[in-house]
Write a structure and sequence with these properties.
Length: 336
């Protein structure tokens, strides 16, 4: 049995806490306020996962020292925009070599840093890993079969975390490509916004398939230019996560996109979804990275124009369709 701290009591942190508890571990969940901790302690319910009953022996706290003290590893499950602030607050309670598993997805707009890089910068003594893949909290909390990948700098740590999370309903693969995993996880949210916009405009399956396929092409171009591996982006953390986020109504990014396609502004859509829409925060960072690495990313460019420049969604789709003619893959040009 491991002692585990979960930083964040939203849907994803809570779903993972129940998974780890079912695996026989002792779990303590941290919330940002004493009121939220007390609510979870007394009701054993989370509003966003209404069918889930939290185990009686699961512990809750709003004290960071308590959730981090003498833990075998800590899961960081806060929205991407809060990762730096949270890591800074965690640092005084983090012993040398503490394993931190980041499960958020995003890129910091101001620095263009990945989330694991941010955590390492704020907590230099930590051993930072990432867990990602097609894994909606709503389904993980119900025990539906799910697969993910854990990325770490060394095999020993990756296999240790793999063993902690593995269960009959949660299969975990290992990878050393932390960067590729993070780029896939962050930018799939931007493509999912585009997929939702297409749904909101009333477009069909052909459009969705095109956005998924060309979306992973964009993500893979950038990810490999930055040093990630192509096979990572063709796996669970890339195409796998992209498919589920573009296709599922569990996806807050897709739901926000649908509303934007129907005429809502970005802010109106975010207010309606009532949850953090990570793709909005990663869109500008994705475009900035594309410019930095001189990578063509037309879908992400159009999403930025819709979100931040007031471009009508239908015009963005038209402009994508009317781009200059080209071969599907650059390597195929020589075949003609």
């Amino acid at each position: 049995m491991s002692e585990i701290g979960i930083i964040g009591s939203g849907s994803w942190g809570t779903a993972l806490s129940v998974l780890l508890h079912a695996n026989g571990h002792r779990v303590t969940v941290w919330s940002s306020t004493p009121q939220k901790s007390e609510q979870l302690r007394t009701t054993r319910r989370l509003a966003t996962l209404p069918d889930l009953v939290l185990p009686d022996d699961m512990e809750f706290t709003s004290d960071l020292e308590t959730v981090m003290k003498e833990k075998d590893f800590v899961v960081m499950a806060v929205p991407s925009i809060h990762v730096r602030t949270m890591a800074f607050r965690m640092r005084p309670f983090c012993p040398d070599g503490q394993i931190i598993v980041n499960v958020a997805k995003g890129i910091e707009e101001a620095t263009l840093m990945t989330l694991t890089d941010i955590i390492r910068e704020e907590i230099p003594c930590a051993n930072v890993t990432v867990l990602s893949g097609p894994s909606h909290a709503e389904e993980v909390s119900r025990g539906l079969p799910t697969t993910c990948v854990v990325g770490a700098a060394d095999r020993e740590t990756a296999e240790y975390i793999q063993n902690q999370f593995m269960s009959p309903v949660f299969r975990v693969y290992t990878s050393s490509d932390v960067l590729g995993i993070e780029i896939g996880g962050a930018l799939k949210n931007v493509i999912a916004l585009a997929a939702g916009i297409a749904d909101g405009l009333g477009y069909g399956d052909n459009t969705k398939a095109a956005l998924i396929t060309r979306g992973i092409a964009e993500i893979s171009r950038l990810g490999t230019a930055m040093g990630g591996r192509y096979e990572t982006l063709g796996g669970l953390a890339g195409i796998g996560d992209l498919i589920v986020t573009c296709a599922s109504m569990h996806s807050r990014n897709r739901r926000a996109g649908i509303l934007i396609g129907r005429g809502y502004t970005m802010q109106e859509a975010m207010d309606e979804v009532q949850m953090v829409v990570e793709g909005v925060y990663s869109a500008r960072a994705g475009l900035a990275l594309a410019k930095k690495y001189q990578v063509e990313m037309p879908i992400i460019s159009e999403v930025n124009q819709v979100l931040f420049e007031g471009k009508p969604a239908a015009d963005a789709v038209r402009d994508l369709m009317l781009r200059d003619k080209t071969a599907e893959n650059k390597s195929s040009v020589s075949l003609f």
